Amino acid sequence: MWRAVFALIIKELLAVLKDPKSRMVLVVPPLLQLIVFGYAATFDLNRVPIAVYDQDHSQASRDLIAQFLGSRIFEQVASLKSARQIDPLIDSRKVDLVLSIDRRFTRNLLTHRPAPVQLIVDGRDSNTALIILGYANSIITSFGMRWMRSHGEPPAPAVLDIRAQYNPTLSSQWFIVPGIIAVLTQVVTLMVVGLSVAREREAGTFDQLLVTPFTQGEILLGKGLPGLLIGTVEASIIILAAVLWFDVPLRGSLIALYFGVLLFVASVIGIGLMISSIAVTQQQALLGAFLFMVPSIILSGFATPIANMPMVIRKLTWLNPMRHILIVVRGVFLEGSTTSAFIPEYAAMAAIAAVSLFAAGWLFRRRVY
Known about the structure:
alpha/beta, abc type-2 transporter like fold, four-stranded mixed beta sheet
């Protein structure tokens, strides 16, 4: 049996690797997507354009402005003389934030009263606005603490001591890049496996394959195992790029990571074979793959937290293998977790793989007969 399966695996690998278009799909798009996602998909803000409306014109107000501009997050693009200039700047999207310092700013500081500082932010993108306000609030808080120390005033009774566990620099690349391992591995594996049977149907060689001595199980193994090999190699390349190029720390066990990758690729292979068994043409298989990929990424926790989703959707995400591999990948990279920490995720991916492969075999038999 295995000798026949091995021959079919060699045939599948040659069919993929000998085709220049297939080789390009396996190498070029994943690398381009890794670079684009790694650098462009970020939650960090840099050089946010701001305008300053300083009505106080004092040493204290200049110190506060200097802290904003020295943070490398904000960049001053305008200095306002009147409050009437604020709305046109925000409406035209020339600035994302206006820092307005009241004329009583220094006087209130010296007399131990609240010193008004107004932050006017463009709220059309609510997520970006919240991030900008978070940065600005931390700068103003830091300024207040420095003012109290330099003027001999007692410190505040409660002071925040913030420490970011697992990601001390709060770099979004440390969160995004490990997730790309799952996304690109799924894309490549699904493309390779999902198009395999459809490609043979279009070429007219699928009927020839059915009259060979291969059993249906051997044909499924011969179609699936090349995808397992290609998906694992693809994941390994992206893992190396994450560690060596993006400097994301790999703190956990490689055994835990690769065991999760193998189960994830196996579950994606089952789904790909289901799509390939139903599709008659490569175009149908490609459409089916994309119909699965988009919801799987959205419902995986790659960009939006699953905890924020409705309860019904949260339960539905347990059927998504990408949800589980993201927990494994980020846990190994950032938390330094070992195999024992991922038993629920391993069990879920193994169950998805078993059910999808069984369904693929059933669909395959239905298409044959």
